[in-house]
Amino acid sequence: MSDVVLYEVAERVATVTLNRPEARNALSAEVRRTLPRVMQQADEDPGVDVIILTGADPAFCAGLDLKELGSGEHRLAAPEQEPGPAPADGPTRGPFGPVTKPVIGAVNGVAVTGGFELALHCSWLVASERARFADTHARVGIQPGWGLTVLLAEAVGARRARELSATGNFLDAGTALGWGLVNHVVPHDQLLAFCRQLAADIVSNDQRGVQRILRTYDEQQLVDGTGAWRIEADAGRAWLRDGGSSPEEIEARRRSITERGRAQTGD
After folding, report:
1. pLDDT tens-digit map of 185-195
2. Lowest mean pLDDT, pick from 19-33, 114-128, 153-167, 234-248
3. Residue 77: per-residue pLDDT
4. What is the tally of structural domains in the chain?
5. CATH number of the domain that residue 254 is part of
6. Is residue 228 part of a domain?
7. Nearest to 116 by CA among 88, 138, 101, 136
């Protein structure tokens, strides 16, 4: 297994850690290939009941590796290789595809754009006081392809979601709690311990019941939601087909976004 995504199992809880701290756990092509395999491994492991998804400090995930994209080495291309929009009702929807077990997102730092989408695909989120969230798709000049326009609106409401996407501004942990984006905010050094206690509470239940109830929630949300997913997927594919943003434009915007993010987060 690649060391860009770490996998550890203890007491029926799998901890999956994005492990590119020097790049703020940005989603390189290698990470995008590896993470779905690791999540599937955890989901299929009979010794695992709960998955905790986190990042190696100091970040949860800074989104797509814009340096890689800006170099032109890895363009948004085939759905099985890149985070471009997949069919809305396809099996690979989102950054890691379908998972039957609860996924607790332990957000230890910034979760930006693709990293924000990654967090939104968790069953729920627990944030360190250092957590920050931002959707900078519009600043980069790319379209969401992992369901952000669906899941963010579900989490915080359509009006707040529109504000976040249109401004690209950062949302701090306390505001994220008030808006209902995260379930808890805890001291940074207690984040994983808190998540593991929640996981232990889940492990103590009947697992068939847990998984069926969570699937019921998912089924209810998608009754009228497939059309929304399809709209985003179609818009994203059209953006790519029509040229989208060039690697040079992405690289220029990356520098601007990095400086703006540092100013807003104090990092």
Report:
1. 999 999 999 99
2. 234-248
3. 41
4. 1
5. 3.90.226.10
6. yes
7. 136
